[in-house]
Amino acid sequence: MTKIIVMTDIHITKKRNKIIGLDPMERFQNAYTSALRDHPDASLIILMGDLTHHGRPIQYQRLRDALHNCPIPVLPMLGNHDIREAFREVFTDAPADEAGFVQKIIDLPHHRLITIDTKDGPFGHHAGRLCAARMDWLRAALAGADGRIPLVFMHHPPFKTGIIGMDNINLENGDDVLDLLAQDPRVHLFCGHIHRTISGSSRGVAWTMFKSPCHQGVLDFLDPDSSLSVDEPGAYGVLLLTPDGVVAHSQDVGFTHEIQRDSGSATH
Ligand SMILES: [Fe+2]
Questions:
Q1: What is the CA radius of gyration of the chain?
Q2: In terms of C-beta distances under 8 Å and separation of at least 24 residues, what long-range contacts does 122-127 make, across chains too?
Q3: Residue 231 in 3-state DSSP?
Q4: C-alpha distance from residue 101 to each of 96, 119, 171, 211 (Å)
Q5: Which of 10, 61, 73, 221 is the most buried (most CB within 10 A)?
Q6: Ligand 1 centre distance from Cα of residue 81 (Å)
């Protein structure tokens, strides 16, 4: 069974710059160390965008340094807090399609992994969009799956979550993207951006999203402020790829994992 680690919304800042009092590098290191310790058999780590907080080369360099000598291949993606040019300056060997978008296809025996670049517009424009070229790329990626189960990764969700501050900056042409994905009922979609663990389905597409290793979104369905954050435990995702599908686990980090047996019961 193939195992994949997923981390989204790392938001690396320059040294000593914190987000709601949290150090994103320290939080990332906690998650990264925990993932490598507990899942050394993972075959890939996918970083699902918002690699940095401001898209600066120094921030990408800090992340690159932190990943130095990683024993597991790392596949980076972009989010709204990233700047494609600055990212490529530092991650010179990162995947890119012919048009320069940071996206990639990986074929496994039973699955096709498709990572997509949903970044749109200049820094400060936080909604995402798949332009016509990327829609064509995605269409071809799905069509070429050759019987494999498509697992699609994109930073911006193409659906609403009820958290209106973030729904206002989701994927602008989400319905078109969902309708394309829904053509294969086996597609599972993974997203970031919201900084919360959520699952559901939209227009026939099943999806899962994960928390950030750093600051989390707030479960507030009324406040339109997209910057609302809370210091809940960080987390990363663990995907188990089975021949007939995928299982998505979320693992919290940053507190003591003391495993205990409940002597009064044989099970949970
Ligand atoms: Fe983010």
A1: 18
A2: 123/54, 123/55, 123/83, 125/80, 126/80, 126/169, 126/226, 127/80, 127/156, 127/168, 127/169, 127/170, 127/171, 127/172
A3: coil
A4: 5, 9, 16, 25
A5: 10
A6: 7
In the reported structure, the alpha carbon of residue 227 is separated from the centroid of ligand 1 by a whole-number distance in angstroms of: 10
| Beta-bridge partner residues of 129 | none
CATH architecture of the domain with range 2-253: 4-Layer Sandwich (3.60)
Cα separation, 211 vs 9, whole angstroms = 8
Question: Contact 46/7 with Cβ under 8 angstroms?
Answer: yes
Q: Is the pTM of this model over 0.90?
A: yes
Domain residue limits, the chain: 2-253
pLDDT in tens, 214-230: 999 999 999 999 999 99
C-alpha 194 – ligand 1 centre gap (Å): 7
CA distance 1 to 42: 10
| Ligand 1 centroid distance, CA of 148 (Å) | 30
Edge-first strand listing for the sheet containing 104-107? 104-107, 111-116, 149-154, 188-191, 205-209, 198-202
Instruction: Dump pLDDT digits (tens) for 52-93.
Output: 999 999 999 999 999 999 999 999 999 999 999 999 999 999
Alpha-carbon gap, residue 235 to 252, rounded angstroms? 4
